[in-house]
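INFO batch 0412 | record 1 of 1 | parsing
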Amino acid sequence: MGRRDLQYKFDSTLQSLLGGWRGELLVAASGGVDSMVMTALCNGCRVDGLSFTVVHVNFSLRPGDCDLDEELARSSADRYGMKFLSHKVDTLEYCRKKGISIEMGARELRYDWFNALLEERGAGFVLVAHNLRDSAETLLLNLVRGTGLEGIRGMRPASGKVLRPMLRFDRSEIEEYAALHDIPFRQDLSNNDVSFARNRIRHNILPQMEAINPTAVRTLAEDMERFNQAAEVLDRLWEEKKNIICSPLENGVFCIDIDLLKSLPQPAYWLFRALEPYGFTSSQIKNIEKALDAQGGKVFMAPGHKLLTTGSQLRLYPLETQRDGDCEVVVTVFENHAGFDPRHPAPGQLYIDADSVCGEIECRPWKAGDAFTPLGMKGSKKLSDFFVDLKFDNEQKRQAKVLYAVGPDGKEQIVGVAGIRIDNRFRVKPSTSRIAMIQVRGSQPET
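INFO prediction complete | emitting tokens
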């Protein structure tokens, strides 16, 4: 393919990805043929209003070779009059400390630095040189490891701040372009190491597929496009279903109505859609599905979240709300007036007779043995029994806070449960002249 043809294809793709945005772009250059051709195409780009900065990560994995890769990326930037930035990291030590694979560690280090550069420089996007074959390899890897619709869509031309303007380029046309225009590049010998999963796909699996169908990579690309179309339809349908079965509550609590979920066709799929973004694995979601018919009380943990079953609901709590911290009690006192109804406070608020309490109202976690007289009742009730009546799950119980004040005798009087119910002794009566509105800033259970 001639220079004009590939350059036009690159320019039109990049312009489409950018829309009307213009400014600085970071060009990720590893030294391999794909990124060196992309750097040359950026130099020849005829889209107005763009500037390019070449960026390179030296992973220190191949002594000597990695430094030569960096030097090639630097010299290419110099040849084209582009700015150059490099970042040297100890990949092996990073992976050892985190207990992850070299592939995963290198990816984290690379994109962490790219994201930091984008913020530091105010650049718009980083360009990476993934091509059609890379996307096909990713699809096959995802299928082997297990995935949903998201994984079979392959690589995206745009993922957040990452753009892939060469994703529809075949490797053969990239290599042909490099040869025609004497673009120097380096061969990464680690790409031949079949101990890496991607390399086994590249060197062992794809060639066998191409022996069956010479255009296997193109065929997989067409499959991924169809998967994308189907996924977009399901994405729109999920937005409708989500509003039916899911109820976001305050303090980051997320609730799924089990009966409504089970009333939908293929409830297992919609359960997966609801929970997979929060880090729950496929096997966990299968176990959660089995627990839908149980009485409740089961706990499932994911990174950053905890899910509890209650029998009628699945309740998802972010782990940030698990910290027990001090609560700030805000009391606002105002005169009682005609038409005021204390029976319907806003969420998180409680109303009491301001003159019925001696001392300052404070807040603490509830404890075994705590008891009060819930509004509308005459007898005392233990908080543990009160929570059972409300069908609180374990997390709601853990988050519950007691409002109290110290009486004239120096003893603690429970005024109520923050955001839930006041003690009947402190209720607003017809004779009440001043009303105290109580709000607590801090984690409180949802009812």
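INFO post-check: Residues 321-325 have pLDDT under 50 and may be disordered.
INFO record closed
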